[in-house]
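Section 3.1: Structural characterization of target chains.
Under the original work plan, the team committed to producing a structural model for every single-chain target entering the pipeline before any wet-lab resources were allocated. The record below documents one such target. The sequence was received from the expression subgroup and is listed exactly as submitted; it comprises 272 residues.
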Amino acid sequence: MASNLKGFILMIHSSFLQIDQVSKHFGEKGFEKCVLSNVNLDVNPKEFVCLLGPSGCGKSTLLNTIAGFTKPNAGRITVNGQLVQKPGPDRGFVFQKNSLLPWMTLEQNVGYGLKIKGLAKSEIAEKVDHYLDLVGLSSHRLSYPHELSGGMQQRGSIVRALITNPELLLMDEPFGAVDAQTRIILQEMLLKIWAKVGITVIFVTHDIDEAVLLADRIVVMGVNPGHIKEIFEVPLQRPRSSDSTFLDEFRDIKMKVLRSIREETDKLMLSV
């Protein structure tokens, strides 16, 4: 009876991603360090949410917990009503550093997840063609990762994560290692892909401008231990581009987020 009631509660909950009282610590008993404390967050279907905060606030730990790479010590995470207990195909992940397999060509890397799923070669080829064209990499399909620029590698990593049709895309500072000009190009590309594919995105960043440009909501995390301090709605109309950064509305929300983060950064400096 209790299990049936729990399932019914999950069914009527409107959130696509639900993070419920999640805490996480590392270290042996008696020497634990609390990294996340009582984190609660609901994310709607097809929403773009950015996690923002100073280093050490637990952004990447929270993302890894959603991915199933690490388990919380308390609380629970559900995606589309299913309890997260381990990594799964419903959650794609894009890392900060290029994670393409160096011995495979770009097209082999992008299609690798489909090959594991056992799709026919013709179907894999068709999907790979579509996704490489989506990010303008069709002419580089036979290149190996070391022959591609950093921006091209990340474009390949993004479509490799998307090609298996996950319900949730998790991105851990995916543009942090590229130059400023390439970063703008990748941000605009991601916005177009997100609008076209219609996927839920959780995006970790240190860059306030990036968060305001991309997100529907910005979740500012506090420190000592990591927790959700404040959530900001981003009122900018879509579609957006780098031109959006010159709008008064962009500047206003940026200043509000900056003030919130600065308070947390000051706490870190005082604790040193």
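Residues 1-13 have pLDDT under 50 and may be disordered.
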